[in-house]
């Protein structure tokens, strides 16, 4: 997957936090690299205004967050990525999608608050 610039990286973090709410029911290891790329591209398209401007996520963005696989995003959560956008704001955006975010969940370089 090729992620371009800080927008793509920030969207990956948004994705990671978003899919944290789906970790348990998701089937892991069943996605191909092309499926991961497609999922991430669709997420970027649907969620860019929420990440860039800090708006409430759209219904389409929330849907993409719920269906994108966590194993596609966690490898991209480096310390640099984790510092690009505030985790607290991202969690609030995910909660704006009607989802709760698990506490103390580790994905890449982030761990959600206790």
UniProtKB/TrEMBL annotation:
The keyword ATP-binding does not apply. Keywords: Lipid-binding, Signal, Transport. This is Uncharacterized protein. It comes from the Eukaryota. PANTHER family: BIFUNCTIONAL INHIBITOR/LIPID-TRANSFER PROTEIN/SEED STORAGE 2S ALBUMIN SUPERFAMILY PROTEIN, BIFUNCTIONAL INHIBITOR_PLANT LIPID TRANSFER PROTEIN_SEED STORAGE HELICAL DOMAIN-CONTAINING PROTEIN. One of its GO terms (molecular function) is lipid binding. It comes from Prunus yedoensis var. nudiflora. Plant non-specific lipid-transfer proteins transfer phospholipids as well as galactolipids across membranes. May play a role in wax or cutin deposition in the cell walls of expanding epidermal cells and certain secretory tissues. Residues 1-29 form the signal peptide. InterPro entries: Bifun_inhib/LTP/seed_sf.
């Amino acid at each position: 997957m090729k992620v371009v610039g800080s927008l793509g990286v920030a969207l990956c973090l948004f994705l990671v936090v978003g899919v944290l709410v789906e970790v348990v029911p998701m089937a892991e290891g069943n996605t191909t690299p092309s499926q991961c790329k497609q999922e991430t591209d669709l997420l970027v398209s649907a969620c860019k205004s929420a990440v860039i401007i800090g708006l409430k996520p759209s219904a389409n963005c929330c849907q993409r967050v719920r269906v994108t696989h966590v194993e596609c995003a966690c490898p991209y959560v480096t310390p640099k990525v984790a510092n690009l956008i505030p985790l607290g704001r991202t969690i609030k955006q995910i909660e704006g999608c009607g989802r709760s975010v698990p506490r103390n969940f580790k994905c890449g370089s982030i761990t959600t608050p206790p």
